[in-house]
Amino acid sequence: MDELLVIGGFVILAIPVAVIYLLVAVSGLRRRIAELERAVPDASATPSTKIADVAPRVPETSPDTPWTPATQTDETDAKDPIAQPAAARVIAQRKAAKADPPADVPPAGPTMLMRLGSWVVANWFYAVSALSLALAGLFLVQYGIENDFFPPTARVLAALGFGGALIAGGEVIRRRFGDSDDSASAYIPSVFSGAGLVSLFGGIAAARLLYDLIGVEAAFAGMAAVGLLGVGLGWLYGPLLAAVGVIGAFTAPLLVGSTVPATSWLFVYFGVVTAVGLGIDTIRRWAWVSVLSLALGFVMGWLTVLGGGTDLVLGFQAHVVVLAVLAILIPARSFRPDHDGVLISAYLLDLKGTKPAFPTLLALAAIIVTSASIVWSASAGAEPFWMAVLSLVILGLAITYWSLGAPALQELALPPVLAVIAVIAIEGVETGPVVAAFAEAYAVTVEADFPLAVTLLWGVGLLLSAVAALRALRAGLSLAWGLAAALIAPTIAIVLELTWAPAATLGAYSWALHAIVLAAVMVSFALRFARVDAPDRTRASVFVLSALASITFALVLILSLAALTVALAATVLVAAWLDRQFKLPLMQIFIAVGVAAVGARLVGDPGLGWALDAPLWEMVLAYAGSLAAFVASLWLLRGMERRTARIMLDTAAWSTLGVLVSLLLIRFLDDVLPGHNTDSHWAMGLFAVIWLGLMLVQILRIEQLGGVLAWVRAALALIFGLVGFGALGLGMSLLSPLLTSWGDQVAGPPILNTLVPAYLLPVCLLAAGAWRVRHRALRWGLAIVAIGTGVYWAFATIRHLWQGPVRMELTHGFLQPELYSYTVAILLTGAVLFYQSLARNATGLRRAGLVVIGLAVAKVFLIDISGLDGLVRVLSLVVLGLSLAGLAWLNRWAQMRHPQN
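Below the sequence we write its predicted structure tokens.
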């Protein structure tokens, strides 16, 4: 009874196939008859020569599919057009019209999505037929499993036999009726053969995964044989067979083994199927086949590892690396790729130019996905971590070697290197098992073996740098390879320092020794490239920069705070000396970075807080030593075209000098005066000098250097300015001796007292900034603030002169001599402005003098007359009158001397 059911099932399965075939055949016959009826009158009235002109010879290409436009024709031009069948002539005329559009109006070709939609609408029954037949072979195996009807061997043989029968049937139909677009049996052979391939793959997968009837070797050989068969059929058939075969082969394990746990053997299976798809593409050049195969290969790999857990991570990492290698080698049909053409970076810089070749883009996508997949899986344990590092290093080395014969692959070595750095960083940030074991190496006993994890990773960076340096000596992107060689190893060392903290386990000196060895290697590279590139020293400069950075890194590990700051400044001096001696223009980069690093240490970490509390000799060593290094470096670069370095050094020297003087004054006043150095009017003034000086440095660098860092410098200038003006505002308000007693009393004799650092020094700094800055609005702003602060200082100084430190607050009122002194000060200021206007022939200064004199007049008549009495009032009016008379005479004389003004 069961046998009859099986036979009945086959009969029922054959019914839709037969119906589909008959429908297609009748439709094709009906169309050909209609074309014959329309063409008979034309054939009798049209000369043969005209018909021959209409139907020229067009080479046969791939059949019309959703992915390729219709361009092929029948090879009927060898015969006399009149002797050909009418239907064939009509078809030839129609295709010739399609193949030769008018030259003046080139038609816009449909997109791939439009072709796919049109094909599916017209041929959806072929897709359904292929799906039905493919599922039939797979469900045949599943039926045997569920009902235990056939023994395992018979189930597998049934699936294989069914697949073979479908392929044989498709081949018979192709040979007898054809598979071209104009034949009635179009796509039928592809449907049958594609479904047969799916059934064959499913049978082999079932034999291995479900029943364990064959070993890994036999299963691999069987899949390879089916894969070769698929490649051969793909050569003979159209893209539909490739689509059916590839998609069906990838989904077969999901159907026949849905109840079986995922195993590493699936990675081998999916790798073989991917290779089959890439092989079909390399023969027929259907790019979509490669994209489809690679995409499904990666997706099925992810699904497998997600379903199998951490036990499959190692197999997954090997799987994705193999896919990347296949994506590079199979399109090239060689173990030595020959990818050529436009570089991806060149295309990205000019998106309107020629695009890179498809094999290059395919390899790029595969390598990026592979690198990301390995980074994602590396944190699954210690073994996956080391497997990830090893896989990425091998992939990077292979791409570097292949790029010698495939120039377009040069940039593809970057993703694996970045992935190595990411794997190391993630392991450290997440405190993975490898970094945890490294940190606990000496937790039990100090006599434990030396932990090699960090040293091995440091060696990986050194290996990648060495390989990049060797590649830089060959033709290609020589400067880019040189930069990679100089950056990879130091970058990995910095990532290890930031995320693994090796010094805590190895000790600062042991870890610093790694950096010194790295510096020695970079020096050897610099010597090598100096000889090779002479007289050009660009690449040698890159390696010198890397060596200096490595030395600096070692110094950071072993020196104290003050010594480290001086050492960093010394490396800036060394860079300037090397540039002077060997003409290394790229030393400007190190000088600029070094100046910024030293400035960050002087102001930020350990910064001003450390400078206020550290021993005086250490503070002086750090700031004075840095200042000396900056000045000496500036002297070494004299006469050289090093604009960036000179501006950085010049501004850094002035700002360091200002910070040093301010810190010395703060510490001196803090020692000789009572109170604390952070809550007094003079401390606020000195803090304002420091931060406003840093603000002016950034503004000057923006104006003179510009570049991509302008916005960063603008942000820094804004922050420094807010802090500086905030400190100045506190000194003039909450901590001002004129308003409150919170900011300590004024100390010192008249004029030369603590009001000078509180207000006069900021005035001088702001005035210097208004003189140096070129931006008009900034100049006016700085000048106005400087004038206002100067007036504040003058007022406070005069009040201190008459009231003393105890009665400085305005609540104590004014003395008559004090009010008179303000009048005299205003008149003297006006006189000075008048004198300067005469000396410089400046109308603006003379007008400013008039304004000041007007203020003096207003003060006398509005304040002094009511506030003074006796001879003091008389004296004030007399002085005002004589002063105004003298100034009026001067103004008249100046107008007669310069009538044009």
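The longest helix spans residues 2-45.
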